[in-house]
Structure formats: C-alpha cells, structure tokens
Amino acid sequence: MKYRKYNMKSGINPKLLKTINYDYVGKKIEINISTNEFTCVCPWSGLPDYATIKLNYIPNKKCIELKSLKYYLQSYRNVGIVHENVVNRILDDIIKLCDPIEAHIEAEFNIRGGLKTTVKRDYVKER
Q1: Is a pLDDT exceeding 80 seen at residue 5?
Q2: Listed residue (100, 9, 11) closest to 92, CA to CA
C-alpha cells in the first residue's frame, strides 16, 4: 500500500521534548502520564485516528517536562502513521530523551470499522 502524498513529510518533532533533573537519583519512583487527546492520521484513508496514550516510566537522572510532552504529542496531529509505529516512535524518542530505567507505553485507539486497536511496548534499560 502507498502512503498518501501529504503524509510523506513528517510533522513529528522530538526536539519539542524537554527534561527536568530528577533530584532523587537512586530512589525508584514510577511516573504515569496519560492523555485521551492524541490524534494522528490514517496514512491510507487520510481520516483522523484518536487514541488514549498511557506512558509509565521509572526515571534515571531526567524526567519529561509535561508541557513539552503535550506539544510533542500534538505534533502527530497531521501525520500519517500506523498505530504500531506511533507506539514505537514515541517510546524511542522518550528513551533517547531521558534514558529511563524502565518505560511502558500503551496506545488505545478508538474503534474504526468495528475494530479497536491497543498497542503496547515495554523497555528495560540494560545494566
């Protein structure tokens, strides 16, 4: 299948992501972030896809600054991308950004054509 022409140019901008220092290095906490405002575009039909994104991570030395995460997720708004790639791309960008000890992402996409899609991925830092 071919992607629609307007989707060839990615609007995803990982440079929007910022961090803050985690001052309690060595103290294991879990940070849970979720939003039901995620949207992207089906690369084949051009129709919008909506999802709830849940991100859980254990910080190492850096935490994700929330406002920057909001802007980063909004950069997917007009991007043609399949559900599986959304999860992989977001988690890869988060790993590069803040080098977490562990991370889990889940994207629960709204029903389309009678099918509901949930995509999950886990990451554990090698020691």
Answers
A1: no
A2: 100
42 is catalytic: yes
Q: Residues for the chain: how many in total?
A: 127
Whole-number average pLDDT of the chain: 92
Give the H/E segment covering residue 105. Answer: strand 102-112
Catalytic residue among 23, 40, 49, 63: 49
Question: If 0-12 CB within 10 Å is exposed, 13-18 middle and 19+ buried, where does residue 64 land?
Answer: buried
- Give me the domains of the chain, ranges plus CATH numbers: 13-124 (3.30.1130.10)
Catalytic residue status for 63: no
Q: Which of 42, 63, 93, 99 is catalytic?
A: 42
Contacts of residue 124, Cβ cutoff 8 Å, sequence gap at least 6: 101, 102
